[in-house]
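Task 17 of the worksheet. Students: predict the tertiary structure of the chain below and write it out as structure tokens. Keep your answer in the requested format; marks are given for formatting as well as content.
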Amino acid sequence: MKKKVVEEELKVENFIKIIIGVIAVFALFYAITYFVTNKNKSNADTNENIQYKKIIVGSILNRSEDDYYVLVSSSSDTSVSVYESLITKYTSKESHLRFYTVDLSDPFNSNYVAEESNLNVENISDIRFSETTLLHVKNNKIASYRVGNDIETYLKNLSA
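Model answer:
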């Protein structure tokens, strides 16, 4: 009888150990999943914020705002860093329009680079850029644009 009771106690003891082991494994997997998921979520938020300002040429006229600016430039343009610092100064003001940037060096935008600019277009597929250009877009149409040294002057006036 005593041997049977001891065997029963061992079975219960082993069962409890197995249950504790299974719970520990589930807790470990839950902790790992939670850590990995939250780490990826914070990285995704950062990437979304970064990509939100950089767009491709094909989406210049279809942003959600009614009034905004788009700086279209090539990474080889040495003045881009000056423009970006002026844009940062302007966007730090309390009341400002959103700024988007387009990199003509991006392969997705290569079809829009030409020897001569064509900015007076009805269809975005007809637009072409030959140099760095600042566009002011209102109601999904190009309201005005600036090229060359005029961009820096215009951005200085905006950020003043």
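Marker's comment: The chain has two domains: 1-52, 56-159. Confidence is low (pLDDT under 50) at residues 44-51.
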